[in-house]
Amino acid sequence: AYRWLKLPVPDRFTPRDGGLGWTENVSNFIDAIIEDKEMVPNFQDGLDNLEVLDAVSMSAGKGSWVSLPFN
Question: What is the pLDDT of residue 34?
Answer without folding.
Answer: 92
